[in-house]
Design goal:
337 residues, alpha/beta, TIM Barrel, eight-stranded parallel beta barrel, 38% helix, globular
């Protein structure tokens, strides 16, 4: 029904506009008493075989919703009823910011992909915290944090620390996003020296807490092998919990859609092979020294299993969730069982 009726209808509209309309519709629907139980009966699959314990957290299943979908923590409780084992909110910055000029989100239907140049548009960490304070479900929530566009790289650590401190009591793990291609010069923070300094500073703040929270690093798929070896060294030297591989790519190889020349990060099926290569490289070269969350081009249970076999401990959906619909989560979990 989703792919034959709902998706064609949604795809008639601007992708960013319909995203907001859909969020509003879901909020309204969940005010009805039967919506939650109906959704859970259709999409949620619970089985002890799906349980995972990763970086000290217990996941009901290994399929999560990637950052960027629920940037402002609007629907994290509702998404717990679609079968996800965890939801990552953000990317969140200290101050609200509008992001880049519209139009900034493009469907590449022929490639089953999306290009976005959103630019960390979000309502700011304080607004997100207020929503998280009213959390009703027990779903694991990750907080993906970044810097404001106007903050120079030499002061970036301050932005990440602000988000870390304000979100600490309300999320279960953190993700440091230095790999988005849509904030000017952000990816320069992936270089070994600034990245080591940033992660060490966050980990020092973490260790001062009564109970620490896992900190993960989200990396770009466009890193070279030497840069990936640097990432392995950085994870070990800073003591962070793991890596999310990967963010969107700036590559445009073998695309067929008209929007392929748009600036921004590419996600979806064209990213699948490269993200799996990065996962396998990190897992093999580190001798599986740290957990990896695999994300990029997961549109089927087979895609998910490929990521897990390559070395991912958990996986996340974004573009595949849009193209395939919410039933994809249950299909993957069924395949895992």
């Amino acid at each position: 029904m989703y792919k034959s009726i709902i998706r064609p209808l949604l795809f008639n509209f601007d992708p960013e506009d319909i995203h907001h309309v859909t969020f509003s519709a879901i909020k309204i629907l969940y005010k009805l008493p039967f919506t939650k139980s109906l959704a859970r009966s259709k999409f949620v699959l619970e089985d002890p075989k799906l349980y995972r314990e990763v970086f000290g957290l217990k996941f009901k299943n290994p399929v999560g919703l990637a950052a960027g979908f629920d940037k402002n923590a609007v629907l994290f409780d509702e998404f717990s009823n679609y079968g996800f084992g965890f939801v990552e909110i953000g990317t969140v910055t200290p101050k609200p910011q509008p992001g880049n000029e519209k139009k900034r989100l493009f469907r590449l239907k022929k490639d089953e992909a999306i290009i976005n140049r959103m630019g960390f548009n979000n309502e700011g960490v304080d607004a997100v915290v207020e929503r998280l304070k009213h959390r009703k479900s027990d779903i694991i929530i990750g907080g993906n944090i970044g810097k404001n566009k106007v903050t120079p790289n030499e002061n970036a650590i301050d932005d990440y620390l602000i988000c870390f401190e304000k979100l600490f009591d309300y999320v279960d793990y953190f993700v440091v996003n230095v790999s988005s291609p849509n904030t000017p010069n952000l990816r320069a923070l992936q270089d070994k020296e600034p990245l080591t300094k940033l992660l060490k500073t966050l980990q020092e703040a973490n260790l001062k807490k009564n109970t620490t929270k896992p900190i993960l690093l989200k990396i770009a798929p466009d890193l070279t092998d030497d840069q990936l070896l640097d990432i392995i060294d950085i994870v070990k030297s800073t003591g962070i919990a793991g890596v999310i591989a990967t963010n969107t790519t700036i590559s445009r190889d073998n695309l067929q859609s008209d929007s392929k020349k748009e600036q921004g990060g590419l996600s979806g099926k064209p990213l699948a092979k490269r993200s799996t290569e990065v996962i396998r490289f990190l897992a093999e070269k580190s001798n599986k020294a740290f957990p990896i969350i695999g994300v990029g081009g997961i549109h089927s249970p087979e895609d998910a299993l490929e990521k897990l076999k390559a070395g991912a401990d958990l996986i996340q959906l974004y573009t595949g969730f849009i193209y395939e619909g919410p039933s994809l989560v249950k299909e993957i979990n069924n395949a895992l069982i």
